């Protein structure tokens, strides 16, 4: 038997091997995006999770740790570390206490908005490279397909 074959298992779609699978190609694209972002953000003194947190807070100020964790695809524990680092760097503020509940809403500082704008230039240039790799007529369909794929695994 060929070592590449698994008896009784049918591949999800025709592909000569794992390198042609959708999941592998998605992971490959994600790894390339992450590496490019890591490199670009280093010049701004930010990590990808820190940048993502700043982006989300700019769009939706006042989000809680749990909401930020979900929106940036990290654990709540990791988001605690990210928030503490951003707060220590003066890029966001959170109240020391809240009147009700435990959620301490985070808000960008002026320096946080400035650092985000500078980093956005680098990150948006990377995204532009991604977008240019797809014919403009196909981009809306690609985005819709990616959304459906994520939903299919989340349902």
Automatic annotation (TrEMBL):
SUPFAM superfamilies: Winged helix' DNA-binding domain (SSF46785). Gene3D superfamilies: Winged helix-like DNA-binding domain superfamily/Winged helix DNA-binding domain. Residues 19-151 form the HTH marR-type domain. Coiled coil: none annotated. Pfam families: MarR_2 (PF12802). InterPro entries: HTH_MarR-typ, MarR/SlyA-like, WH-like_DNA-bd_sf, WH_DNA-bd_sf. This is MarR family transcriptional regulator.
